[in-house]
Amino acid sequence: MTSSPDDINIGYDVPAAIGDNIADIQTPALIIDLDAFERNVARMKDHADAMGVRLRPHAKTHKSADVALYQIGNGGAVGICCQKISEAEALVRGGVTDVLVANEVAGPKKIDRLARLAKSARVSVCVDNPAVVATLSEAAVLLGVTLDVLVEIDCGARRCGVLPGAPAVELAKAVAAAPNLAFAGIQAYHGSAQHIYDPVDRRAAIDKAIGMARETAELLRDAGLDPKIITGAGTGTHDLEGASGVYNEIQPGSYIFMDADYARVRSTEGNGTVGGFEHALFVLTSIMSKPASGRAICDAGLKAHSIDSGLPTVFERPDLKFVSASDEHGTIEDPQDTLKLNDRLRLVPGHCDPTCNLYDWYVCVRNGRVEALWPVTARGKLY
Question: Per its UniProt record, what Pfam families does this chain match (predicted)?
Fold first, then answer.
């Protein structure tokens, strides 16, 4: 695993040094349990291999070139997904050579950057509008590159995407006819289904998505357009799309880390978490105040973790409950008064993706010590 230089000025740039004991890490810090992380990567590789589908993990979860390269080198990934051009640019600079921007890109400056990136890596992108097809083609011709393009269909999320079926076929025809664009297939991702907790309801939502993808693929083939790639799925539903016989590529992201909300998504077998993945990402926090009996204050507040999917949980401490957050403080119920000043806790963030975007570094730990420091390469890359 790669690490940052040893001469980094600890305390100004990073919260720890390689070789430090966990007790020496300055808090709040974003830490990765490397053993759990590696087990999660191996599990998803095994799932994809067993289903006979390609694995293209989503880097919007981690925004890290180090993590992406580990997923490719050790986890069987054929490449990665990004959501934004700036994410893709940062990760290509970090050594990633195959990127799907699994999102719509509009605006001439962004499309120009996308085409320029195709000079350094294999780049694919999604479309749901014929006007974008024309602009993509113009940029690709001007720069002498070819862009792979996937038609995104709205398969239930009611977000981006052209309607499945005939409208998708018409858009694919426009892509296939455009100079320097190659029609590559279908993007069919049902984002909101990932967090449907009940497995029966989740399967029902994905069955509809699979039906839309199947119908669209059949109509494309009838029109002489081969959708070589049918891609989508996330951590919560990867097993359903992967086993469908329709999708040949999956895009899970959060499986490497898991978070408090994904812990509530039950597996299709009804027992345990989806895929058997485990918590590997934590906000390490310290108790900074013990102002009253039954209450402790930690140094991880709103600026340390995202709470859009709920408050964090306290890892392996069912006796403690994180109950509120302000900018710099977190309040923890401690009914048995077990906590004291400077005690360390691992918080499982409610939503890992936006939490990772708050930090510059992952502090990677194993056997109680810091083994590596990975920069959050694409932190703040929003455009």
Answer: Ala_racemase_N, D-ser_dehydrat
